[in-house]
Amino acid sequence: MVEAMASTRDSLPWYVVLSIQKDHAVEPSGHSHVLGLATRDPDGDETHWTLVQVISAIRDGERFVVGEDPNDQGAAIEPTVCPQCPKATLVVGTPTH
User: Fold this and answer.
1) Which residues are CB-neighbours of 83 under 8 A, at least 6 positions away?
2) pTM of full prediction above 0.85
3) Over the stretch 4-56, which tens digit does the pLDDT of each residue have?
4) Within a domain: residue 39?
5) Backbone φ/ψ region at 79: left (φ over 0), alpha (ψ -120 to 50), beta
6) pLDDT tens readout for residues 79-94
7) Is residue 5 in a domain?
8) From the centroid of its chain, how far is CA 79?
């Protein structure tokens, strides 16, 4: 039996999201955008990330998860465009648009 080798991305540790900073200015219109995250890092430290830093890190192969279980792919953070306006934001799980 041949086993598939894990990709580099699959072997990277997860950043666990501790808090999410949102743009509350647009909430009266029925939606909000993620402005940044605070994470528990693989080395145990905490980091505050801007939206641009998170998107850049994801593009560079880093992984962010909401919750403690890194095997829960539905809890992975992914960049997306807001479905109600043309702003970049983040979603939990794979974006559908």
Assistant:
1) 97
2) no
3) 333 444 556 789 999 999 987 766 677 788 999 999 998 999 999 999 999 99
4) yes
5) beta
6) 999 888 888 999 987 5
7) no
8) 7
Tokens of 42: 């693989």
Residue pair 29/84 in contact (Cβ under 8 Å)? The answer is: yes
What length is written for the chain? Answer: 97
Please check whether residue 61 lies inside any domain of the structure: yes
Gap between the Cα atoms of 78 and 2, Å rounded = 31
Q: Secondary structure of 1-39 in the HEC alphabet?
A: CCCCCCCHHHHCCEEEEEEEEEEHHHHHHCCCEEEEEEE
How many domains are contained in the chain?
1
Q: Does some domain include residue 81? A: yes
Amino acid letter, residue 42: P
* Side chain identity, residue 51: L
Residue 18 belongs to what domain range? 11-92
Q: Give the bridge partners for 92, in sequence order.
A: 77
